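re: ur question from earlier - yeah i can do the single chain one, its not a big deal. heres the input i used so u can compare w yours
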Amino acid sequence: MLIEGLRSNSTLQRLNLSSNSLAGETTSALVAVVQEQVTPLMTLDLACNELQDEDIEALHGALQTSNNHTLFSLDLRMNAAVSEDSELLDEITRIVHRNELEMRHQ
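and the output i got, formated as C-alpha cells:
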C-alpha cells in the first residue's frame, strides 16, 4: 500500500521510514521507486531498520543506474546487519552528496 502511494505521488519530498523493521521485499520495492524517480524524494530516512548488505547493494545499484538526481539525503545508519565498513555505503554517500551539490548549483 505504501509503495503504491509512493508510485502515484508526484509531490512527496521527504519520507521518514526509520525504526520500521524494513528489509528485503519492502526495500526492493523502495529501490524501484527510487530508480523510477516518479516521486521527487529529496530525503529518505531508513535508519534503525533491518537492512542487509543485499539491500544496500540494491539501493546503490538504483542510485548508480537511474537518473535520480533529487535524492540528496539518505540515512542508512544503525542497520545492524549492514557492514559498517562497506565501500557501497561510501559510494552511496558520494552519489547523494553529488546530487546535493548539483541541486545547489541549479
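Residues 55 and 70 are 20 Å apart (CA to CA). not sure if urs matches, ping me
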